[in-house]
Amino acid sequence: MADEKKKRTRRPNGASSIYFGKDGKWHGRVTVGVRDDGKPDRRHVERKTEAEVITAVRELEKQRDRGAVRKPGKRWNVGEWLTHWVENIAKPSVSENSYDGYEVAVRVHLVPGLGAHRLDRLEPEHLERFYQKMQERGSSPGTAHQAHRTIRTALGEAVRRGHLTVNPAEIAKAPRLEEQEIEPFTVQEVQRILLEASKRRNSARWVVALALGLRQGEALGLKWEDVDLEAGYIRTRKNRLRPKYAHGCASPCGRKAGYCPQRQQIRRETKNTKSRAGRRTIGLPDELVKLLHKHREEQDRERREAGERWVDKGYVFAKPDGEPLIPNTDFHEWKKLLGDAGVRDGRLHDARHTAGTVLLLLGVPDRIVDAIMGWEPGGAARMRARYMHVTDPMLRKVAQQVGSALWGSSVEEPASGAEGRERGAPEGERDGN
């Protein structure tokens, strides 16, 4: 009987075969396609018993029939694939900021933590334990979630290219990410911030943040060609990018590229806003129009003083030589502004939260709020719901005061019941701009 098992029967070309080998194990071979060189792609499986190898052969045939067989060739480990993906697949096709996020997640977290696994043997449980260890070692839930999003995207590409049949990151439970509470500044805090800002260069930069809710990149990427003070509106079309530098020194200076005396900028200054909602027109309150007129006069004076050193790039908020502001410097200036104003510490994005909350509490129509804030139609309702969690009478009163402080207009007292939202809207927004 054993001799009969060892005999290999002749089967038609391309048919699967099962046989008992001289090594004492059962073997199966399945044709799943054609290799790049034109030869049949025959896959091999081995098991201890005939029943086990039959099951394995049938499973491989099912995968072949539904087109889910792993592509032949190099067996990647996770580290090799992630490095290849981020540099050769993601980098040419995503924005600079997206690439930066992917690259840090891959280099700092994913490759050290998961890189040794074979790509086709990575399990959802490996990922879940990895996310847990990240947070135990001090990473925030947001950082762990960024790592999850990155590897999910990278492994999705591996599936599309046939290196994997299933994306384990789609199965793994993502790290729990609690939504941050929105903490708009109170009217007293806003007044102190504006008073302190009035003593500084580019004071209008902070009024724009608090009154219009511009994102940092939108404010720093704003150019005078996008501002019409006569008609009273601005257009947001560009986002300022974080600078990236390369060494420009002939011999190594021993410093990081950003501190090289001859450093060279290797990233463009701005990019187009990534969505249609981000490219928007916003009406300006009269007081802000006056402030921007004054700001342009001050910039003209700086241009004359700088003389030949002035680089005319047309930025609304610029350095004393006309060059665009650096986002990191702008962030630290915000932190210093809050400290000097005696206001609680807050994120720069909290200025945007303040503007969004005030617009909603002032009763500005939803479609106008969406347009001013640059919210995508699909997510606008969710964003409004987040901002409207602070609707008690005290905050309504604060909204009236902020409206008066920022727009220079009075707002009616809120009525009760269905008329509880203020009927007055900032003049610059009532016409839909």
UniProtKB/TrEMBL annotation:
<protein>
    <submittedName>
        <fullName>Integrase</fullName>
    </submittedName>
</protein>
<feature type="compositionally biased region" description="Basic and acidic residues">
    <location>
        <begin position="419"/>
        <end position="433"/>
    </location>
</feature>
<dbReference type="GO" id="GO:0006310">
    <property type="term" value="P:DNA recombination"/>
</dbReference>
<dbReference type="InterPro" id="IPR004107">
    <property type="entry name" value="Integrase_SAM-like_N"/>
</dbReference>
<dbReference type="Pfam" id="PF14659">
    <property type="entry name" value="Phage_int_SAM_3"/>
</dbReference>
<dbReference type="InterPro" id="IPR002104">
    <property type="entry name" value="Integrase_catalytic"/>
</dbReference>
<dbReference type="InterPro" id="IPR013762">
    <property type="entry name" value="Integrase-like_cat_sf"/>
</dbReference>
<dbReference type="Pfam" id="PF00589">
    <property type="entry name" value="Phage_integrase"/>
</dbReference>
<feature type="region of interest" description="Disordered">
    <location>
        <begin position="1"/>
        <end position="22"/>
    </location>
</feature>
<dbReference type="InterPro" id="IPR044068">
    <property type="entry name" value="CB"/>
</dbReference>
<dbReference type="InterPro" id="IPR011010">
    <property type="entry name" value="DNA_brk_join_enz"/>
</dbReference>
<dbReference type="InterPro" id="IPR050090">
    <property type="entry name" value="Tyrosine_recombinase_XerCD"/>
</dbReference>
<dbReference type="GO" id="GO:0015074">
    <property type="term" value="P:DNA integration"/>
</dbReference>
<keyword id="KW-0229">DNA integration</keyword>
<feature type="region of interest" description="Disordered">
    <location>
        <begin position="406"/>
        <end position="433"/>
    </location>
</feature>
<keyword id="KW-0233">DNA recombination</keyword>
<dbReference type="InterPro" id="IPR010998">
    <property type="entry name" value="Integrase_recombinase_N"/>
</dbReference>
<dbReference type="GO" id="GO:0003677">
    <property type="term" value="F:DNA binding"/>
</dbReference>
<feature type="domain" description="Tyr recombinase">
    <location>
        <begin position="180"/>
        <end position="400"/>
    </location>
</feature>
<feature type="domain" description="Core-binding (CB)">
    <location>
        <begin position="76"/>
        <end position="159"/>
    </location>
</feature>
<keyword id="KW-0238">DNA-binding</keyword>
